[in-house]
Amino acid sequence: STVTGVQTCALPISTVERVARSADVPQAVARYLKDNALPKQAVCWPELQALDWAASGIAVEARAARGDDLVGITGVFCAIAETGTLMMLSGAATPGATSLLPETHIAVVPESRIVRSMEDAWALLRAECGETSMPRTVNFISGPSRTADIEQTLVLGAHGPYRVHVILVQS
After folding, report:
1. Model confidence over 158-169: pLDDT tens digits?
2. Under a CB-based contact definition with an 8 Å cutoff, are residues 154 and 146 in contact?
3. How many whole angstroms separate alpha carbon 152 and alpha carbon 165?
4. Which of 67, 80, 114, 121 is the most buried (most CB within 10 A)?
5. Which tens digit of pLDDT belongs to each residue from 94-153?
6. CA separation for the pair 59, 149 (Å, rounded)
C-alpha cells in the first residue's frame, strides 16, 4: 500500500503462544495454522513425530523440509531471553532445512530451555556437547527473514521464513 507517497508493506512478525504441556502443542499449531489461513500440513523434526498431530487435524511428516514445504515445526537447543533468539543446532535429527526452507517456522520451546544471555547459551552448548563434539552448524533465529542488501529494497523471506511462531511449553 502507499501512504503519503511512501511505499509500505506488511512486515513479517514473530508470534508467541504458551501451552501447559507438550501434548497441547498440536492443538496450538492447528489454531495458528487456521488463524493464518495456512495449510494443515507440515514437516517436523523426528523428536516431535510422536505428538498426536492427527487428532488436531494436521498431516505432519517427520523429515527435513524440501522446497515445496510451507510449514516446518522444530524444537530448539535453547532460547535466549535477552534477545528473543532461538539457538538451533544442525544434525541428523535436527535438520536446519526444517526451520529455514518453509515460509512458516513453528518452534517448540520448553521453558526449561530458556537461558538469560548469548553467553549462557554458549556455556550450555559447551556443557552438553563438550568442546570436541560441537555441532557442524549453529543457527540463530531472531525472527522472520528480511534483507535490504540490494538497492536498499526490503525483501521478505530471502534467507528463511516469512513467519516465525514460538510455542512455549511450561512443562
Report:
1. 556 788 999 999
2. yes
3. 27
4. 121
5. 999 999 999 999 999 999 999 999 999 999 999 999 888 888 899 999 876 555 566 666
6. 37
